[in-house]
Amino acid sequence: MPDPSGTNSTPPAPAPKPPLTIVMGCDTFPPDVNGAARFAERLSAGLVERGHDVHVVAPAASRTHGTWVEEHEGVTMTAHRLRSWRWYPHDWLRFALPWMSKANARRILDEVKPDVVHIQSHIVVGRGLAAEAQKRGIRIVATNHVMPENIVEFSLLPKFLQKTFVKIAWRDGRKSFDRAESVTTPTRRAAQFLEGATGLRGVHAVSCGIDAHNYTPDFTPRTANRILFVGRVTGEKQLDVLLNAVTLLPASLDARLEIVGGGDQLKNLQTMAETLGIADRVTFTGYVSDEELRQAYTRATVFAMPSVAELQSIATMEAMASALPVVAADAMALPHLVHDGENGHLFRPGDAQDLADKLESVLTLPQEELDTLKNASLRIVASHDIQRTISTFESLYRGEPVADPVTDAAPSVPAPE
């Protein structure tokens, strides 16, 4: 009905918000293969697709360093690759030179003049960017993917010093986080852990998110019992527990295990599989292409995640987006994703027998009940859509108030000692 006053009563559409110039500070970025690197890549690419100018600052993947354009996830962005050194206790890690972190940050910030700096860790690159961005009055958003408890494995420190190292590392991280206007981490449980470890308050829980359309749910009845693990083959993943669990499964199941990923424990675990007499039932693929990874998810029957140090677990979300039931350790953030009895099962961390029992319970389900678990995985992971994650960070970059995306509630986690 026309407005009798002759004026249009429809409120005007809000003016489009101008694109931002964003510096993404990363201590790890592809070609590195880990959850933090993948998240930074996907977030950066998603921001570029929305019209923002993204500059990634990360260690060079080789001795060649400098500034150039790189393609990630089908889009291009500017990469500032810093001179780096290889850390030989780790199988691939390279790190930017710590004593150059502030000088590198000054050079890049003065050249790019960003609206916001988003640091993905506080170790080297993030530390320098946070310090120099604060001096220039540039908004800082910080995301934590790091647990010093995991880093200490590669530090070469004697065990009696490791607990002290962890306390110092968290205290040091607090200095960089205090410079940020907003601090995030992938789950509410991880946020509680970070607050307990550092004394911070108001940490946002923002899922790393995934694009579920990149994965193929397959409800075709399986002709074999395939267990899949995807991730870094390192100590905190507790893959020895998974191998022991496979030996405890009934021989009648003829279960096969596929381990996708590389890491410093690969050779040790291959030797362990031979010692346990299951080498013919375990496949170590090493690193694979994205397409090969998607195929591995699609052909599996169940996904196993025995790790006790997951702040979220992108691999578990990818498995769920592929309609896989999941058996995971009841530790850290995994209960956010795996709802016991709904889309899989949680097992007692480190307990190979309990893991074997939970895997057997999934592998012996009638197809109708297995499909119920598979559909539940799809339903739960739907709340972790990457587009929602990108929108939340856009608001944080602009200094707008945000409500943490609701993904799942989980019991509180005790603060570290």
Question: Can you walk me through this structure?
Answer:
With 417 residues, the chain is α/β, with parallel strands linked by helices. It has two domains: 185 residues, Glycogen Phosphorylase B (Rossmann fold), CATH 3.40.50; 172 residues, Glycogen Phosphorylase B (Rossmann fold, 3-Layer(aba) Sandwich), CATH 3.40.50. The protein is built from 14 helices and 16 strands. The strands form three sheets. The chain has an eight-stranded mixed beta sheet with strand order 3-4-2-1-7-8-9-10, sandwiched between helices. The chain has a six-stranded parallel beta sheet with strand order 13-12-11-14-15-16, with helices on both faces. The protein is globular and about 65 Å long. It starts with 20 loop residues before the first strand and ends in a 20-residue tail after the last helix. The C terminus is likely disordered.
Short synopsis of the structure:
With 417 residues, the chain is α/β, with parallel strands linked by helices. The chain has helices spanning 35-49, 101-112, 125-135, 148-151, 159-178, 188-198, 239-248, 266-275, 290-299, 314-321, 334-337, 352-363, 367-381, 386-397, and strands spanning 21-25, 53-59, 66-72, 75-82, 84-86, 94-96, 116-119, 139-143, 182-185, 204-205, 226-230, 256-260, 282-286, 302-305, 326-329, 344-347. Residues 223-375 form the Glycosyl transferase family domain.
